[in-house]
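I have been asked to look over a protein record a colleague put together. The record follows directly below this note.
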Amino acid sequence: MKRVLIVINGYGLAGGIQHQVKRLEEEFSKRNVEVEIIKNTQVFAYIFEGDIKVSLPKYDFVLYLDKDRYVAELLEKAGYKLYNSIDSIIKCDDKMLTHICLANEGIKMPTSISSTLCYTDNGNRDYLNPVIEKIGLPMIVKENYGSLGKQVYLANNYEKLLEIENKLIHIPHIFQQYIECSKGKDYRIIVIGGKVIAYMKRENPNSYLSNLATGGTASKVDLSKPFLDTAEKCAKILGLDYCGVDILEGERGEPIVSEVNSNAFYEGIEKTTGVNVAGCYVDYLLSKN
């Protein structure tokens, strides 16, 4: 019997992760796979006399449903096989790093400018002028680390941009082009093992955000090959075995990549499309191990 470890965060879980774990347990159980679930706070991994020590038994593989990079790196270097790999998790966890990794690869993305590192705030905001000149207003401002749309802001004018910047001055963030024609609308595409397996349209007419967690709704949709190809290309470049690619639609109907999520929730997309995403992921993992 195969043994699988699922690692989750030890300080409370969003509903999406709780559902994720439940669905994975169900699908592994159907395939006679033993599953153990532990919190990152229960993984006692450390360096002793120059070597990594981990107080865990061996597993066929580890499903790492957290973003604690140090625990993940210790596990990987100790010989555990993680899905996704810590390298790909890091590339997706940092939104600016995601865009950098996808740059120069023929993938269209919003114009994106990284905030600069600030140790001591001297109050000077002159650097916002070339940002506005290049991107224009309104613009999107995103914290590099965030999820569920909670760390995304819309600056309609300079005063609002200045307010956001004063708030985020010590937090890594991105100034980003606002794709107004895709306001409150995008497409979530799930890629497993390099292949698209499900996708849906997310829409919120009352917000610039489309996330289901912020009040958006989901619907089935037919997507053209350029959207599907773009999602698969993103997964390949970032080295992801599983991901959700969020794509905006440009003025000419072209795909514009907004974000890539290494641990995209699938409660909404399973209900919307009828595709057994958890089962597809489990089958893929078992085929690789």
